[in-house]
Specification:
ten-stranded mixed β-sheet, globular, six-stranded mixed β-barrel, about 900 residues, alpha+beta
Length: about 900
């Protein structure tokens, strides 16, 4: 056993020395061979042979030095590693010999890899990366999935739990320590203009994530057991420093949150930012939920899913065991209000956005993004493959010579793939730096008040992704050129002119790769053009109402502890003050901002006794009497609400033209529409018709719409619409002054309708900007690829062109000869790209406003851009072809 172990150790030592001390071992081998040869020569001379004959006999008996060296290297092991090291040295010698080619190829791959790595980094950071907490590997999210549930209501996610469920699960489980958290916003006296990011937590949440108090303490079990019993707050370190100047005497002092006095009991350490994607500025007991949304007592609703659960993995206890325990307890809690629901518990490694529903809903968007970014990598790979094909023209004689003296084609293929693999690795490394820069730029562009804490620094997963994709990319773009080079015929390859055998297949391959690049950039640019055209069209299209001279005032009434009655009185007072202001033409209240979203419901038309009658899906808004005039919605039939009807919450309804024609037979006035109000049905009489409006925000469907009077708690969601004349500045100041007169502690957010449109169209702007940048990059890469193809064609046909010019061919004939070869891949790629672009345009037509997927302006602009890029790529090599002196080329022969 000992001798066997010694042999294994000796073998490992030998392989280690053969890998890292190769020169020393080679020197020792040469010395050993020289010694044995000298011994044999001495023996033969003692036998009477002449010195020359003795040396010959010794060489024959000992064997060739090269053969012995190869056999010895094989016995040492690591043969393939040794070959890889030698091929790597050859590859880097080639890079030093042709630095321009190497740098261009590396930069091309880096651009494609940078975009893909940046996208992967953001996705990985949001969906999979461990949270910035202590010991993140053992922190777990606990989610519920409910099927066949008729009553589940969610504030954050259906996978969260209600307060009652949280209490029952936490009290009943012995398998895990369960903590709860929910995001919220609160107002802070003295901090006007924005809300403070708060997190409602159980008393064990902060200790569970590794938080330590810099000052004071954290919450106790008593402070998080009874709803509304403990108005205490813990401050984040950054908020304490920024808002309170690092006052160390703050502990025990009162602060005002949502007009409620709270006592500061602690300040967290500087490394604690919370386990959610938005950092916390303050932490409140989870039992203080009513304070954050006074009109929605989520804490009292057993079906309201608003608490996200966390736990720590215990040694010896699997996630499946915890999930089984939680599932049993959750099923009992849910059955108390919904016996038909089927509950499944999930325990997964904690991450920012790993909720099951969120992953499912985000998958189509992420897939489209990944497809667009992957197309850039495809273009990059095709471009580098073209460059390798063009460069192979200068290496074919070298390859032919190596094949002629006995090198195997497989061995040469491995060496060429090693070169392309290293191009991919180096490009991936530079792409990683580009991705980090892009990620940092995205984080810098995010508004500071969002408090995003996505980490875009590379970790092991990002490095592994970049490394694998880089190596695969290098092998993919290097395989076809390597196969083309190693399959050439020796006889043409050894000729002095160096013309390649099989030139036509190689030329067809290059043209195919260029066509692919052109098609990709056409798809990206056409769809970017459609989005840009749609974005510009919004401001001139007929949306059913004027999109100018309108201001929108929003208020944080919930955070200021307004009751429904007080909110209603506030809006009536504000409306009266504004209507008395010079320059104000109309003012009205609504609960929605139609540019940014919509609310939907199902209604029944006609007789309410038809229990089996299918409901009609509609959009709706709850508005005041002055809203229609302020929003610019003219009355097409009937009338709108009176102030008395709004104040009395009368059962009257105004419908849009779409609902009137599609659902009410074109004569809606006087008909009845049944709505579900709370748990009862209520009949509403249709009293008027207004124009249908076209939705602008992405993802908002074109639904029939109705309007009912705003009432009760809905005023807490209200916003004031003001139509004005003249300049917006004085009217915006009047809104702020009227608000201040009604309530000095209330701070309105005032926006023009144009600012609202810009915000609504932000996703479209981001999408169009991204596609434009990707398309421009693809066009640049395709132009470089076309330049390589034409340069290759000119070099390959240099002698033919010289002969034609020597025989009297005009420059335009030479240009036509080169141009036909250039236009073929551009034309085919342009045609294929336009077909694919139109198909892709149909997929996004739901977000296009007044623009067809066949929009001639977008398509024509792209054709001109591709034509200009192709012309630029064509000009330099074509000019070189017509200015070449025939005698210079033919003198080589």
């Amino acid at each position: 056993m000992r001798s066997m172990g010694n042999r294994v150790i000796d073998r490992i030592r030998m392989r280690w020395r053969s890998l890292w001390h190769r020169d020393q071992l080679e020197h020792e081998l040469r010395e050993e061979l020289a010694f044995h040869q000298a011994e044999l020569v001495a023996q033969y001379e003692q036998q009477g042979l002449a010195p020359a004959e003795a040396r010959r006999r010794a060489r024959l008996e000992l064997g060739g030095p090269a053969q012995i060296s190869e056999e010895t290297r094989d016995q040492r092991g690591w043969r393939r590693t040794d070959q890889l090291i030698r091929d790597t040295r050859v590859a880097f010698r080639q890079f030093r010999k042709h630095p321009g080619f190497a740098l261009t190829a590396i930069l091309t791959i880096a651009l494609g890899m940078g975009a893909n790595t940046a996208l992967f980094t953001v996705m990985h950071s949001a969906l999979f990366r461990p949270l910035p907490v202590a010991d993140p590997g053992t922190l777990r999210n606990v989610y519920l999935q409910l099927e066949h549930s008729a009553r589940r209501a969610s504030f954050g996610s259906p996978s969260f739990v209600s307060f009652r469920e949280f209490i029952d699960i936490r009290a009943g489980t012995n398998a895990a320590d369960i903590a709860g958290i929910s995001a919220a916003e609160v107002s802070w006296r003295g901090l006007a203009g924005r809300s403070v990011r708060a997190q409602l937590v159980s008393e064990n949440l902060l200790p569970m994530i590794g938080a330590r108090p810099t000052l004071g303490r954290f919450f106790t079990r008593e402070e998080t057991s009874q709803p509304g019993s403990a108005p205490v707050v813990v401050l984040s370190h950054a908020f304490w420093q920024r808002q309170l100047g690092g006052d160390r005497a703050i502990i025990g002092k009162p602060v005002t949150l949502n007009r409620t006095p709270f006592t500061v009991i602690g300040v967290a350490d500087s490394g604690t930012r919370g386990p959610l994607i938005q950092t916390a500025e303050v932490w409140l007991p989870i039992t203080m939920q009513r304070l954050t949304r006074p009109d929605e007592h989520l804490i009292d609703d057993p079906s309201a899913a608003w608490i996200q659960m966390f736990t720590r993995q215990r040694p010896g206890l699997t996630d499946a065991a915890v999930a089984a325990d939680v599932q049993l307890l959750a099923a009992r809690a849910v059955a108390a209000y919904d016996s038909s629901a089927r509950v499944t518990a999930l325990v997964v490694p904690a991450a920012f956005m790993n909720m099951p529903g969120m992953r499912r809903d985000a998958f189509p968007v992420l897939a489209l993004l990944w497809l667009a970014f992957s197309m850039i990598l495809v273009v990059s790979c095709a471009n580098v493959a073209n460059m390798l094909l063009a460069r192979s023209l200068s290496r074919q004689r070298e390859i032919a010579v190596r094949l002629a003296i006995g090198a195997g084609r497989g061995r040469l293929l491995v060496q060429l793939l090693t070169e392309s693999g290293w191009l991919g690795i180096l490009g991936g490394g530079l792409g990683l730096a580009i991705a980090f820069g892009l990620g940092s730029l995205v984080r810098a562009m995010a508004p500071a008040e969002f408090g995003l804490q996505l980490d875009v620094t590379p970790d092991r997963a990002v490095l592994a992704f970049t490394g694998v994709v880089s190596i695969l990319s290098g092998l993919v773009f290097g395989l076809l050129p390597a196969l083309q080079v190693t399959s050439l015929d020796l006889s043409p390859g050894l000729k002095a002119d160096g013309l390649p055998g099989g030139g036509r297949p190689r030329g067809r391959l290059q043209q195919t790769l260029v066509a692919v690049q052109v098609a990709v950039c056409v798809v990206l640019l056409v769809n970017a053009g459609l989005l840009v055209r749609s974005f510009n069209q919004v401001f001139t299209m007929d949306t059913g109402r004027p999109l100018d001279h309108m201001l929108i005032g929003s208020f944080d009434l919930r955070q200021q502890q307004y009751t429904a009655g007080r909110a209603e009185a506030f809006f009536h007072q504000l409306s009266e003050r504004l209507l008395a202001t010079p320059g104000v033409a109309a003012a009205g209240t609504s609960i929605l901002d139609p540019e940014l979203g919509f609310s939907s419901s199902f209604v029944r038309v006609g007789d309410s006794t038809s229990a089996d009658q299918a409901g009609v899906q509609t959009a709706f808004d709850e508005v005041g009497s002055g809203y229609f005039k302020a929003a610019g919605l003219a009355v097409l039939a009937g009338r709108t609400f009176t102030e008395a009807e709004v104040r009395s919450n009368a059962a009257v309804m105004v419908v849009d033209q779409r609902m009137a024609e599609q659902k009410l037979g074109g004569r809606p006035v006087g008909q009845r529409v049944w709505l579900e109000v709370a748990t009862a049905r209520r009949a509403y009489e249709v009293i008027g018709v207004v124009p249908s409006t076209e939705p602008i925000a992405m993802g908002v469907p074109r639904l029939p719409t109705y309007y009912v009077p705003i009432a009760g708690a809905r005023y807490l969601e209200g916003r004031m619409w003001v139509r004005y004349q003249g300049k917006p500045g004085p009217v915006a100041a009047a809104i702020r002054a009227a608000t201040d007169a009604a309530d000095r502690e209330l701070t309105p957010t005032v926006k023009t309708i144009e600012e609202n449109l810009q915000l609504a169209l932000l996703p479209m702007r981001i999408a169009s900007g991204s596609l434009t940048a990707l398309g421009a990059l693809a066009l640049a890469l395709a132009s470089i690829g076309l330049f390589g193809v034409i340069g290759f064609a000119v070099a390959r046909r240099a002698r033919e062109i010289a002969i034609r010019m020597a025989l009297g061919a005009a420059p335009r004939e030479v240009l036509g000869l080169v141009g036909r070869q250039a236009l073929a891949p551009v034309g085919s790629g342009l045609a294929a790209g336009l077909v694919l672009a139109v198909a892709a345009g149909h997929l996004i037509r739901g977000v296009l406003h007044g623009v067809s997927p066949f929009d001639p302006a977008a398509i024509g602009t792209v054709i001109l851009a591709v034509g200009a890029g192709s012309a630029l790529a064509f000009w330099v090599p074509a000019r070189r072809a017509v200015t070449t002196r025939p005698a210079t080329v033919l003198r080589v022969d």
